[in-house]
Amino acid sequence: KSGFIAIIGRPNVGKSTFMNRVIGQKIAIMSDKAQTTRNKIQGVLTEDDSQIVFIDTPGIHKPKHKLGDFMMKIAENSLNEVDAILFMINAEEGYGRGDQFIIERLQHVKQPVYLIINKIDQVEPDALLPLIQQYNKMYEFEEIVPISALEGNNVDHLLELLKTKL
Ligand code: GDP
Ligand code: MG
């Protein structure tokens, strides 16, 4: 089994942290500053029964200038080349205009989109259900998976899920 998976989401939701945990190397650049991941950086997770290529996209977000516009096109194009998309959000921050913009872009996408609710180590368990209900109204997600990329909670479960769908 093999496939390509893109990770999208607002800056600082934890995309690079997730990549690094999964691939086990510091391949993506991590920073608190927005937009430090400038290129499509790919990591390959190879196991006995599967191979998954992860693409850490530059943030798809509202462009403020021409370069942002151009980078957004690259990011959008890469979405059409993958088998599945992980749309990562920050459980701490909840829904915002950045997410709204991404969900609008996803309307044209045919691939399965997984909503990954990251940083669950930062919120009370009670806070998750309202968040899930809110996002569920906006898009038909393939699955909704809460994780902590930093601490590793539920990351193995997510990988198993992705493998079964490849
Ligand atoms: P990116 O911009 O989406 O690639 O986000 P990064 O991976 O660079 O993460 C941004 C910040 O969030 C960093 O300080 C990370 O350490 C932190 N972070 C990422 N995942 C988690 C998580 O699951 N829990 C917590 N508490 N912090 C996280
Ligand atoms: Mg990053």
Automatic annotation (TrEMBL):
Family: Belongs to the TRAFAC class TrmE-Era-EngA-EngB-Septin-like GTPase superfamily. Era GTPase family.
Region feature (G1): 9-16
Signal peptide segment: none
Ranges where the record places region G4: 118-121
Region of interest called G5, as start-end residue ranges on this chain: 147-149
Main location class: cytoplasm
Organism (species): Saliterribacillus persicus
Protein name: GTPase Era
G3: region residues: 56-59
Keywords assigned by UniProt, alphabetized: Cell membrane, Cytoplasm, GTP-binding, Membrane, Nucleotide-binding, Ribosome biogenesis, RNA-binding, rRNA-binding
GO CC terms, sorted: cytosol; plasma membrane
Compartments reported by the entry: Cytoplasm; Cell membrane
Subunit structure: Monomer.
Keyword RNA-binding: yes
